[in-house]
Every structure is written in C-alpha cells, then in structure tokens.
Amino acid sequence: MHIKSAEFVMSNSDVAKCPKSMLPEYAFIGRSNVGKSSLINMLTSRKSLAKTSGRPGKTQLINHFLINKNWHLVDLPGYGYARVSKSSKKVFQKFITQYFGLREQLVTAFILVDIRHTPQPIDLEFMQWLGENGIPFSIVFTKADKLKPKAIENHVEAYKTILLETWETMPNYFITSSSKNIGKDALLEYIDYLNTNMKLESN
User: Which family does it belong to (predicted)?
Assistant: First the structure.
C-alpha cells in the first residue's frame, strides 16, 4: 500500500463524538515513550502528522487521521508512565476502554512494545484484557535499530514464551524502527490485506 494522503480529522475524549463514518479503523496504542508518534509519522511518510515529544504521555486524546480517503488511523493515549494526575489517568483509561468496547469500526489494534526491554507486566496485562474482550490485535515491536538481530530474536522469544502460557498461538507481530524505516511495508501491507478482505466479504 502506498499512502497518498493522510489528514488529521479530530481529537476528543468522547467516543460518541468519534467520526460517524463506517470506514475501517486501526488503533495504535502502547506505553508512553514507546515511539508511537514516530511510528505513525513513518507509516504515513509525514514528519509531523502525529506530534512527537520528549515528554512521555503527550497524547491525551483519541486522535483520528483519514488515510487515503478510505480508512482511519487512530492514535490513542499511551498507558503507563504519563506525567499526569491520577484523576486524569483514570479519565484516559475510561475512554480507552470505551473506545475498544464501543467502536464498531475498529478492525484491529496495534500494541506498541519497546523491543529493548524484557516483557513488561503492563503490556502483558493489556494484551490479556484485549484477548478477554475479543479485540483483535497485533504486537508492534519498536526501536529495533537499537539492538542486534540476535538480541531482537531473544526478546521476541521471551514474549512468545510468556504469551504461549495462556494463548494458543503467538499473536501476529511486526519488528519496526521508525528511524530506519524498518517494518513500514509489512505493516501497511497487512492493513491493506485486511481492508481488501473486508471489501470482498461485504460484496
């Protein structure tokens, strides 16, 4: 897939006010400072479509972007380290869970995980929550340029070992690096594949 257009549509904290169109949506979410904005900018070939920041927890709203006039990329608030008050964090969690529970347009979620670190409980718990609620997702390992191939393989295997304790199969996953453009084609081809299948099923 080649992204010809990427436009900001809206930001809000009320799922009921999200776009009314039934275009397919792909949600990106992960711990704060995982490189989500950089990944979105890499995928869309736009340097500042999503706002990057040195301050973790910058994204605090549901952000919709219209891609190629036919699907939405959704940038969701990070979880974990965000430097906000406990009351604000509760609001984030509420509209994140509402988004996943109510948004019929959602095709799948992409859970971003920093490949440099060992499996983190907060990521594993979120994946478990998605599984229990029947929400499809893929894992997107970020910052792969920071590790050598063998270390990347070992870290992915660590996730496989833990996840296969409770899952029948390892969730779909991608290895990416925003600075090196690694994983861009694979991610976009996967989204294109899902969009094409949905069109075929609706005909």
Answer: Belongs to the TRAFAC class TrmE-Era-EngA-EngB-Septin-like GTPase superfamily. EngB GTPase family.
Does any domain span residue 184?
Answer: no
Residues sharing a CB contact under 8 Å with residue 68, sequence separation 6 or more, in sequence order: 1, 3, 4, 5, 6
Residue 187 covered by a domain = no
| Total tally of structural domains belonging to the chain | 1
44-84 residue pLDDT tens: 999 888 865 444 444 578 999 999 999 999 999 877 644 44
Range of 79's domain? 6-176
Residues paired with 148 in a beta bridge = none
Q: How confident is the model over 94-114, as a mean pLDDT?
A: 92
Residue 92 pLDDT > 70: no
Q: Is residue 194 part of a domain?
A: no
15 DSSP assignment = G
Instruction: Answer whether residue 189 is part of any domain.
Output: no
**pTM (predicted TM-score):** 0.90
Sheet of 6-12, strand order:
6-12, 62-67, 71-75, 25-30, 106-114, 137-142, 173-175
Burial classification of residue 79, based on how many CB atoms lie within 10 Å of its CB (0-12 exposed, 13-18 middle, 19 or more buried): buried
Q: What is the CATH number of the domain that holds 130?
A: 3.40.50.300
